[in-house]
Amino acid sequence: MNAFLATSAHLHTNIDELSLLLLGNLKLEIHLIGVAGSGMSGLAGLLLSLGHRVSGSDRVSNEEVERLCVRGLRFVIGHCKEDAQTADLIIYSSAIRPGNITYDRALELGRRLVRRAEVLAALMTGKKGIIISGMHGKTTTSSLAAHVFGKAGLDPSHYVGAEIPILGTNARWNALSDYFIAEGDESDGTLVCYKPEHTIVLNIEAEHLDFYENLEAIHTVYQQLIDQTRGFVFYWAQDPDAKRLCASHPKAISVGTTPECCYYYQDLECAGGGSSFLVIKENEELGRLTLSIPGAHNVSNAMLVVALALEIGIPFERIAAGLQDFCGAKRRFEHKYATKELLVIDDYGHHPTEIAATLSTAQRFKNEQGRLFVLFQPHRYSRTQRFEEEFGKVLLAADTVFVTGIYPAGEEPIVGVTGENIVTRAQAHGHGSIFYTPSLEGLRFKLWPMIQPGDLILSLGAGNIHEETTRLVADLQQRDHLLSLMGPGRITLYESLAAHTTMRVGGPAQFWAEPETEEGLCALLHYCSEEKIAVMVMGRGSNLLVRDGGIQGVVIHLAKGAFAKYRVEGDTITAGAGVRLKQLSATARQAGLTGFEWMEGIPGNVGGALRMNAGAMGDQTFDQVVTLRYVNHKGTPFSCTPEQLEIEYRNVPFFKTHYVLSATFQGSISQREDIDRLLQESWTHRRTSQPIAASAGCIFKNPNQALSAGCLIEELGLKNKTHGKARVSEIHANFIVNDGGATARDILGLIETIQDIAWKERGIALEKEVQIVGDG
Fold first, then answer.
1. What is the largest CA-CA distance in the chain?
2. Neighbours of 271 (CB within 10 A)
3. Residue closest to 91 by CA, chosen among 155, 129, 46, 131
4. Burial class (CB in 10 A: 0-12, 13-18, 19+), 240
5. What is the pLDDT of residue 329?
6. All domains of the chain, ordered by start, with CATH?
7. Which long-range contacts (C-beta less than 8 Å, at least 24 apart) are formed by 92-95?
8. What would the pLDDT profile of 242-266 be if each residue is shown by its tens digit?
9. What radius of gyration do the chain's Cα atoms show?
10. pLDDT in tens, 60-119
11. Quick one: pLDDT at residue 170?
């Protein structure tokens, strides 16, 4: 027996009997398995409105579940046997199968188990039920119908498979209204449960073939729904399968784009975020309507609602008002972020037909010079297997595509079926910018470096791809706010820290900020302190190792504006935190001041040198500091002298939570010839004793005055020791170099190896001098 026939046999619930139970005076104990799903949460809301005692379980919670809990839902994360013990009725979604412990226990106890659609059909009994059916567009059409009916004062009950901002909720019960508008799910054959007053059929095609044997099995289910419809059957006449099944119904009403249809539209104009079109009934012009959601596919959805509304007597002007202020459903071409430079849109589309319509609409929305970037998460292994060729073709309409791993939706994996198959198909059709990225997490980091002003980012899929888009949008909004607080300077997202460290490794910074004024820095720090946002001030990255996962929070780089300024007064130089040590050394030479020569060749800046008390050739930074200015983590500036600080070898603990603004350094008047000689000696020493390859400087602190870390590592025979693409320098053993392509993980592995060998063979615990930050 195939899946369709098996399920049909299961649908033995007496709907009238269930209706009496649910709509009677007796208040039941009802449990919903999988209550966090959009359909099940809506059902829970309806049952709560009827006064039943409702509980639910699911693997995760969400905002809708939290709202239901306020209304009285008793919710638990995870499923357990106890949920089935006392319930009078247990409702389960199509995602729940044998093996779920609550479901299995209910069967053992003989509890009454019913499907979602059976309950919905029972609630419709006694009302004029309107079922919106079809493979694509159900949610938009049903929510639009509910809104238009509401505008007309009919105030219907409704049940929709998504959050609908303009309706306030995805499901609503109104005992006083005659009408109940509901989205009918065809995925599990339960359309046959409904005996509605009216039916809308949007489209029919081969879909959900994980459940149905073939298209003919789908036709069987739709035919039964159509035959059970008492009143009108509205169908989109341009869809051949919908026309084939619906046209013979005694009250069939065709809707389309040609004069052969009872209702059709002409003169379509698309502008901004919506459409305008002329409505015609039996060759009589009724008037022009404006729809405030984009896309020709939504015009066809709207036309079916127009026909329905007119046939039950809603005035044309009321319909017009409803269409004009309808703002759409969540995840249906939902605008998440919009500026002149960037547009981010999220859409539920997961079938090739839906994706084609969405991409067509997106092309119209993007800037003329901009590009369309798509993040696509395939939904179900069976659908991917069935449509991988079609997916490959339809994605050609996007400039750049990232395809993720498959969202299983409860399915077991199919060997050899992955998102990469879609990429391969698209490449075979000539797509030159499509990438397979199995993991959803961090996808925005790969995408963002490609984005330019005028681009459009579109996330597609019925799984959880929207979560990554939501994170991107949250970061964009936070960036915009931080920039408004900071003023002059720049703030970017996901800046690669490999580009800002001398080791040339490291993941992205969530926010990379370059303030140009002290006031801007203070404002930034104050806000981050108040909002508990992590902050790191980063210099030239010369004594720093950033892990591959990057850094969450704000990474501040002081390199421009006020922080790049310096001035010479007598034998002192006052320099901002962003002034490079090499520049400070050159300035001292020009001013005839000695004492700065050791700084020649050190790839750091003033702020970083003070944080680490950097040094070379027997000298260190604080030997020359007279005074310094700093700011605390709350953004309050102060001044101090070195005597007020605890200064250690290669460390000043105070500056872990306080950040240098500027410092005044003491020099000595000297002859230019003597300064040049010392500079040459410093340069020669550095070039002959330290590697030229990318490094972070000395990795370990010297164990004691008698033994340097470099000598110890060399004595252990570890020069040229490698881990991945990281290597102990053959020139100076206390340097680890990046031979090209090394990761932070490689370097950390090599550091750990050196420490282990030093401890095992010499009993010496090497302490790291390099600062290690970020997520792994």
1. 107
2. 10
3. 46
4. exposed
5. 67
6. 3-115 (3.40.50.720), 127-256+297-313 (3.40.1190.10), 334-472 (3.90.190.20), 565-686 (3.30.465.10), 698-773 (3.90.78.10)
7. 92/32, 92/33, 92/34, 92/116, 93/32, 93/33, 93/34, 93/37, 93/39, 93/40, 94/185, 94/187, 94/188, 94/190, 95/34, 95/37, 95/409, 95/410
8. 999 999 999 999 999 999 999 999 9
9. 34
10. 888 888 989 999 999 988 888 777 788 899 998 877 878 888 888 888 888 889 999 999
11. 85
CA dihedral 538, 542, 544, 545 (to 10 degrees): 120
What is each CA distance from 415 to 198, 382, 418, in whole angstroms?
43, 11, 8
Q: How far apart are CA 432 and CA 424, in angstroms?
A: 11
Read off the DSSP letter of residue 624. S
Low-confidence ranges of the chain (pLDDT < 70): 1-12, 272, 329, 686-690
On whether the CB atoms of residues 40 and 116 are closer than 8 A, the answer is: yes
Residue 633 carries which side chain, given as an amino acid letter?
H
Using a 10 angstrom Cβ sphere, with 0-12 exposed, 13-18 middle and 19 or more buried, the burial of residue 753 is middle
CA nearest neighbour of 42 among 19, 73, 13:
73
- The tens digit of pLDDT for each residue in 358-415 reads 898 888 777 778 999 999 999 999 999 999 999 999 999 999 999 999 999 878 899 9
The two tokens of residue 98 are 């044998």
Residue 741: CB atoms within 10 Å: 11
Whether 417 and 386 have beta carbons less than 8 Å apart is answered as no
User: Do 358 and 348 form a contact (C-beta atoms < 8 A)?
Assistant: no
Cα–Cα distance measured from residue 311 to residue 305, given in angstroms and rounded to the nearest whole number: 10
State the CB neighbour count (10 A cutoff) for residue 350: 24
The pTM assigned to this predicted structure is 0.75
Contacts of 414 (CB under 8 A, 6+ apart): 381, 382, 385
Q: Strand 668-669 to strand 694-695: parallel, antiparallel, or no bridges (unpaired)?
A: unpaired
Positions marked active-site = 138-139, 183
Distance between CA atoms of residues 451 and 302, nearest Å? 34
**Which region, left, alpha or beta, applies to residue 193 given φ > 0 means left and ψ of -120 to 50 means alpha?**
alpha
